[in-house]
Design brief:
single chain, 329 residues, alpha/beta, D-Maltodextrin-Binding Protein, domain 2, Double Stranded RNA Binding Domain, 3 domains, 5-stranded mixed β-sheet, globular, binds ligand PBG
Length: 329
């Protein structure tokens, strides 16, 4: 059925417009929400009017608590909890998330309806004034000995400390603009940000060093926007699945299955990154480490994209079996 016909069913079924979209209020979250709306309206002319959508900004616990590592306050679910509640309470009809902030096991009644095309999945280092000139052959070489790097992510912390045990990490939180400001103010020698967020904010020039996915394994879902809605809302699920990006769906299935198989404690540094090869096969890298970088295990597999979830589960189980048991206590 042509997409327009599918979407034309929305008002015909008597669903009241506007459709209410839930989003966090950060500049990146709002950008991603408007990006999603521009895609859905391109596919669906019937929704191309000013009254079709209404943005509802929802503050999450992750936005409110700014001084602690995510692992210490309950992990990634914190950016989504209040948004799930708004969906279940029917205050919104669907919601836009950074997929890497969305827990693998969603609450009963909430479904991941679709994923949008991936922006760059890599991490970047934002360099403060005391850093040297970046050398592509030695991505961490420009960081001064003993420097304090701002990050609230145990995944990034473990990988940089593994490569540079002389460095130290301090907690930096807040949205992209806040974190850039704190590096500029000299509170930290440098910090990490997802390149996807910098690009979407037009701040790519702030990326002093771009780390390839081998040097710094990204988080599962990094750079991908995911849309949730109520599992019982068959009509909206159908509409949203029509705009799914197939490549993003395959890589995110692999990465999220890996994460789910490894998920022991939210304090465990875990990386997961999949990409589609020119042959159409799927290449998946997974990483488990200790937060201090003293242990780091990284493995890759290649298989059929159609088996994305199974590949992720198998790699996750293998990494778990070959890591010290206390990492998953
Ligand atoms: N946890 C915060 C968060 N969630 C998504 C992004 C960036 C965009 C993305 O990865 O899709 C960021 C900021 C960052 O990690 O630098």
């Amino acid at each position: 059925m042509p997409l327009d016909d599918t979407f034309a069913k929305v008002p015909r079924h008597g669903r009241a417009l506007p459709l209410r979209v839930g989003t966090r209020g950060s500049p990146l979250a709002l950008w991603q929400t408007r990006h999603f709306l521009s895609i859905i309206t391109r596919f669906c002319p019937v929704l191309r009017n000013a009254e079709a959508f209404e943005e509802r900004v929802i503050a999450t616990s992750g936005d409110r608590i700014q001084d602690r590592a995510l692992a210490d306050i309950g992990g990634k679910g914190l950016f989504a909890k209040e948004i799930h509640e708004a969906l279940l309470d029917r205050r919104v009809d669907f919601a836009v998330h950074s997929l890497k902030d969305l827990e693998t096991e969603l609450p009963a009644g909430i479904s991941l309806a679709c994923t949008l095309a991936r922006e760059d999945a890599r991490d970047a280092i934002v360099l403060g004034a005391g850093c040297g000139v970046p050398d592509p052959a030695d991505p961490y070489g420009c960081l001064p000995a003993g420097a304090v790097i701002g990050t609230a992510s145990v995944r990034r912390q473990s990988q940089i400390l593994h490569a540079r045990p002389d460095l130290r990490c301090g907690i930096i939180r807040g949205n992209i603009q806040t974190r850039l400001g704190r590096v500029r103010a000299g509170e930290f020698a440098a910090s990490f940000l997802a390149l996807a967020g910098l690009k979407r904010m037009g701040l790519e020039r702030e990326a002093g060093v771009v780390l390839d996915a081998e040097a710094m394994v990204p988080a599962a879902g990094q750079g991908i926007v995911g849309i949730t809605c109520r599992s019982a809302d068959a009509e909206l699920l159908e509409l949203l699945s029509a705009i799914e990006d197939r490549a993003a769906a395959a890589v995110s299935r692999a990465e999220r299955a890996l994460l789910a198989a490894l998920d022991g404690s939210c304090r465990t540094p875990i990386g997961g990154h999949a990409r589609l090869l020119p042959t159409g096969a799927l290449h998946l890298t997974g990483l488990v480490a200790r937060p201090d970088g003293s242990f780091l295990l990284k493995r890759s597999v290649t298989g059929e994209a159609a088996d994305a979830a199974r590949l992720g589960t198998a790699l996750g189980e293998e990494l778990r079996a070959d890591s010290p048991a206390d990492l998953f206590a």
